[in-house]
Amino acid sequence: MTDPVSRPTFYEGEILPAADLIASVDYPRNQMARHERYVHRWGIAAGLDLTGQPNATAGKVVTASAGIALDGTGKEIVVPDPVTLSPTDFLGSVSPDTTHPESLYPIFLVGLDQAAPPSSNLTGACNSSQPTRTQEKYNIVYGNLGDELNLDQQQGVANITDGPDDGSNNPWRVLLGFVKWDSVVQQFADVADFNPSTGIGRRYVGVNAAEVVSGSGSLILETHPANFSGQNPILALQLREAPNDGKLVFGKLNPDGSVTPVLTVTSNGNLTAVGQISGAVTPGSMQVQSGIAFDGMLLPLPTGINPNDIAAGKVTLHSLVSVHYESVSPLGPHVLVPLECRVDTSTRQIHCRVIDITAALNTNKILPAWCDYVTIVAVPASTGSGS
Questions:
Q1: Tell me: the pLDDT tens digits for 139-168?
Q2: Which residues does residue 372 pair with via DSSP β-bridges, in sequence order?
Q3: Contact indicator for 261, 251 with CB cutoff of 8 Å
Q4: Separation CA 260–CA 250 (nearest Å)
Q5: One-character DSSP codes across 349-370
Q6: DSSP label of 291
Q7: Sheet holding 336-343: strands in order across?
Q8: How far apart are the first and last CA of the chain?
Q9: Which residues of 20-47 are buried (b: 16+ CB within 10 A; e: fewer)?
Q10: pTM (two decimals)
């Protein structure tokens, strides 16, 4: 049975052993680790960007910027200064695929606790010196192809009451990005934040919450901070109260933190869009399409109508087809007599055939034909299409 969480207490005149002093440090540290582990989701919190600059000779010098990450055990990993990735360490951990130079190799960050060197000024029993600090260090780990696929299957701490892992055994890996390798010059060739082959990229910290509440009357979600200097636009979704009405606003985030609306929904359901709404079907409407189709084709449907909604009876389909006469032979005009022109109601397949009774051909032939069609879909006022 797991022991409960215990908090150290002290009394006057007590002789404080080292274990009690250590417990007074471990208690808040373990408490914070449980918070980070169960209230938040692990990943990069700030910085730790991989960048590549041309090397003086060949390839690129890859650097990870300073930053902070949280691993899945609740451990805070701090990289205080930029760190340059080592091609030698890369080759010591990875066997590059020389036949596929575009391959992307994952780069991970792991936390590692190490005892600081003993102090020469302090001694313990029997005049022995011991460390008085634990240094919370980190390691850069170079992965083989596909090592980023199973990051969510990493094993964390054993018990819910445990503090963060010390990184001494199978440490938790946080993905920083990817590098390409140039086997000719034995140097890094490039860096990337995302691997299109596996669909996995850098992972950032998140929040486990059933509710997110703002006391300011406004709640905003941003893809990047307002001062982001990247190439992509910063998008934002904002719930905000207004003097007479509340609104949901989606649009681009401005440098001053305001949102330029492209889609607005008021609390009473009014929707305003700057651009065109595609694929939407209004309840209570009639959707119409016409054109020319050939025998064997499926009857075309108006834009936004889902064929599954027709099969489920959510919308009603009406169709009108007629033979389209437009065929001329070198022997002269054909004489065509309709054989059938209809739509199979269960499959929407068009059946349009004619009989060619042209005297010059001296034979009767059954031929597939074109047809003019008009399709009308009625959308009930109570439910719209599930397109």
A1: 999 999 999 999 999 988 989 999 999 998
A2: 292, 322
A3: yes
A4: 8
A5: BEEEEEEE--GGGTS-EEEE-E
A6: E
A7: 336-343, 350-356, 365-368
A8: 53
A9: eeeeeeeeeebeebbebbeebebbbbee
A10: 0.69
